[in-house]
Structure formats: structure tokens, C-alpha cells
Amino acid sequence: MSYTIIVVFGLLSGIIGALVGLGGGVILVPALLYFGITLELIPSLTTQNIVGLSVIMMIFVGLSSTLSYVKSGTVDYKSGLILFAGSVPGTLVGAYISKYLDVPSFNLYFGILLVIIAIILIFRDRFKPIHWFVKHGQKINKTDNDGNQYTYGYPIWFAFMMTFFIGMASGMFGIGGGSMIVPMLVILFLFPPHIAVATSMFLVFLTSIVNSASHIYYGHIPWNFVIAVVPAAYIGAKFGAALNKKLQSDTVILLLRILLLVLGIRSIIVGLL
């Protein structure tokens, strides 16, 4: 039963994570909190184990989907590396803090984060692009494999500051940060959505390597479950990246908004009880 749960949610996390550039942690973490800890179907799991398992999984979700996006020429490697440099210290801080979170605290803070992410996604379409950051930042001109040209950009100092806090959330809760990175890239830095998703997954891949190293150091990785979640997530991410090119993104985002909001509210309630 334990391995079946891990495989099913690893597969779903890979699909959804690659489909909208999230990394999959926002699916795996609440699912294992509920089925593994609340329902006690996987009694050996702790919140730290769930975070550790999630960050290991995201290495392969990020790698799988990045390789798929490479073929379409939509990954902005330079921006991904700049954002990665800002996220590394935040990731290390977050992994350290996660050691001290018990189950109620984890549920409460994680639920608040999910609600914030859901609100960002709900109102994302109503936010007007902010041209100030491009005007006062480093401008980037990119041409994809179809010959489409785009111009966007950002101040490096601001990108570092934002990714520090996103990295910290990733280290604490085992999420990839894509749910916050993609809106940031699209709304503030004027990234085209498909380049934002692809670059986000590249960043998720890089950040998850550092994140995993931190959690390995703290002994948070349940290695017996890693062999179940990694293949499932990798296959799911391949499928999700393929779906990204076919589905209407508005439909996917709508479903994700509702899901994250429900999961967040439930997690807050559990944390307060």
C-alpha cells in the first residue's frame, strides 16, 4: 500500500509539475501529509521525510521536463542560472529551518503558503504587466526554434532577492518554487508564458540538487521510497511536458487554482486543530 501511494502521487506530481512549471512538490507534499501522516497509511513518514522525498523527486521532474523543453528552444539558460544563484542561499536556510517544524506547524505554514500561491494564480490574469523592471533591468532578446522573437528582462538585484525567499520556501516545504517563479517571470519580468514555464523547470532542476544535498545532510531522505517515486515522477514529467504543448493553459491553471486553494485551507485547518 505504501509504495502504491508513493507511485500514484509521484506520477501525478510529475504530470502536473511539468505541465504548468511547478515542480510537483505542491502535489506530492500535501498528498503524503494526508494519506501518509493524517490517515497513517505510511506510518514511518515524518514531515521532514516528505520534504526530503519531494526534493529528490523534483530533481528528476526538473530534468525530465527540461530535456523536453530544450527541444523547443524555450529554456532561457542564462536567466535560469542567474535565478539559481539567488535561490541557493535561501534553499540552504529553508532546509535548516525545516528541521524544527513539527506536524501542526508544518501544516499551518504550508497551508498559508498554498493559499498565497492559489491567490497569486487566481488573480494572475488580472495583474497588468509591470514594465518598470524591464525598463530598469537587464534586457533579454530571445528567439525560439519557431523563429518567434521576444524581449523581456529584470534587475538582477531584485531577481536575487525574490529567488532567495522562493528558495527558502522550497527548502522548508519541499516545493519546487515554480508556482511562484512563473507568475514572477510573466508579470514582473514580461517573460512569454511558455519560456517562463520552461525556464522555471530548469531552475527547479538546479535548485533541487542543492536542496536535496541539504536534506541528505540532515538525514531527511527516506531512501526506500525514493526508488518508487523517482521513476513515476520522471515518466509523469515527460507526459506533462508533452501535454503542455497541446492543452489550453487557462483550463489547467483554473483547475490548479481550485486544487491549491482547497489543499491550503484544509492544511491550515489541520494545523490549527
From TrEMBL:
As for membrane topology, the entry says: Multi-pass membrane protein
- Locations listed in the record: Cell membrane; Membrane
List the PANTHER family hit by this protein, alphabetically: MEMBRANE TRANSPORTER PROTEIN MJ0441-RELATED (PTHR43701), MEMBRANE TRANSPORTER PROTEIN YJNA-RELATED (PTHR43701:SF2)
Record keyword Cell cycle present? no
Give the source species: Kurthia sibirica
Question: What top-level branch of life does the organism fall under?
Answer: Bacteria
Positions of transmembrane segments = 6-37, 49-69, 81-98, 105-123, 154-173, 185-209, 221-240, 252-272
Gene Ontology CC entries for this record: plasma membrane
InterPro entries the record matches: TM_pro_TauE-like, TSUP/Inactive_protease-like
Please state which protein family the record places this protein in. Belongs to the 4-toluene sulfonate uptake permease (TSUP) (TC 2.A.102) family.
| The name this protein goes by in its record | Probable membrane transporter protein
Q: Which UniProt keywords apply?
A: Cell membrane, Membrane, Transmembrane, Transmembrane helix
